[in-house]
Write a structure and sequence with these properties.
mainly beta, 3 strands, 0% helix
């Protein structure tokens, strides 16, 4: 899953993160977030 994280109420982006889960039926299996972009404005 690709996620973005905001740092202000104006939706300024803090970074783009990714998390993996080999079994989406198991919510506790999500990996720790890994930042892939710092202060990114867009991600594919």
């Amino acid at each position: 899953m690709v996620l973005n994280r905001t740092k202000t109420t104006s939706w300024d982006n803090e970074g783009i993160y990714v998390s993996f889960n080999p079994d989406v039926a198991s919510p506790e299996a999500w990996s720790t977030l890994v930042r892939t972009l710092r202060n990114g404005r867009w991600y594919p």
